[in-house]
C-alpha cells in the first residue's frame, strides 16, 4: 500500500481513541481515515457488524478485541465496552473502536464518546457509510428521488432494553415521511409494520428487506408492508438487515446494478411508470 496515499493524514497517538465507521460491509467502502487508523492501531475493538474482510486491514501484531452486541444473544454491556476503551487508552495504547456503518447512526458512538470525555481521553470520530444509505444503494434502492420524495425518516426497531421504542410517534412517521428506513427492525417487524398500518400507511405499500448489505451474502426481499413479517419468516431472513418502506422500492427494477452484473435486465420504462405514482 503506497505510503503517499496516507501522507498528510493524522496520526493515531498513544493514549487516544478513534471511533471509526467501517461502512455496511464491503471493505471498498472504508474511508482513507479508517484505513489509516487500522494500519496504526495497537488495539482494535470491533463490533459484530464489522465484516471480517474489513479486519484484514488491521496492522499485523495489533490486538483484536471483540465487543459485539447482538440482540437476543449474550453481549457485553455498553458501559463495560466504553470503560474498556478508557482502560486501554490509559495504558498508552493507540485504540481504534471499529463499528459497522457510521458510529453516530444507531451505533452507540455518542455514548462511548461521552464516556471518553468524562475520563479525559482524547478521541477522533471517523464517519462511515451508514447501512441505511450505502446498503440500500447496493440493493438498487435510492432513499431519495426528487420526483418521488424529499423526506426520509431513519428509525431504530429496538431500544436499549431490546423492545420497540416507546417514544416513536408512529402517526407522525406514517404521515410525515414517504420513505422510512428501519435499522434493527427484524426482531419486532410484525409489531412495527402493524403500527405503521394502524397509523395510516397502506398495507400494499412496497417494502424491501436487505440482509448483509454490500457483501457477498447480500439478500434482498421485495414485498409489501402488510406481508413483510410473514414473508421475512418464510424466506428465513436474519439480521443484520435494513428495512425500507416507500415507493422508492419500486425503482429497484431499474436500478439494481448488482443484479445487472449477474445478468438481470433492468427496465427504465418501469422506473418512469413508477415515478408517476403518488408518494404515500
Summarize the structure.
This is uroporphyrinogen-III C-methyltransferase. This protein has helices spanning 32-38, 52-55, 78-90, 109-118, 131-138, 170-176, 189-198, 228-235, 252-255, 257-261, 268-275, and strands spanning 17-21, 43-46, 63-66, 95-99, 123-126, 152-156, 179-183, 206-211, 219-224, 241-245.
> How many strand units?
10
Q: Name the CATH superfamily assignment of the largest domain.
A: Tetrapyrrole methylase, C-terminal domain
Low-confidence stretches: none
Please state the oligomeric state of the protein chains shown. Answer: single chain
Radius of gyration: 20 Å
Beta-strand residue percentage: 15-25%
Gross CATH architecture of the largest domain: 2-Layer Sandwich
Give the N-to-C terminal Cα separation: 48 Å
What is the general shape?
A: globular
Helix-strand sequence: EHEHEHEHEHEHEHEEHEHHH
- DSSP summary: helix tally: 11
CATH hierarchy, class of the largest domain: Alpha Beta
Helix content: 25-40%
Q: Largest sheet, if any? A: 5 strands, parallel
Task: Return the structural class.
Answer: alpha/beta
Strands side by side in the biggest sheet: 3-2-4-1-5
Q: What is the CATH topology classification name of the largest domain?
A: Methyltransferase, Cobalt-precorrin-4 Transmethylase, Domain 2
Number of domains: 2
Average pLDDT confidence is 93
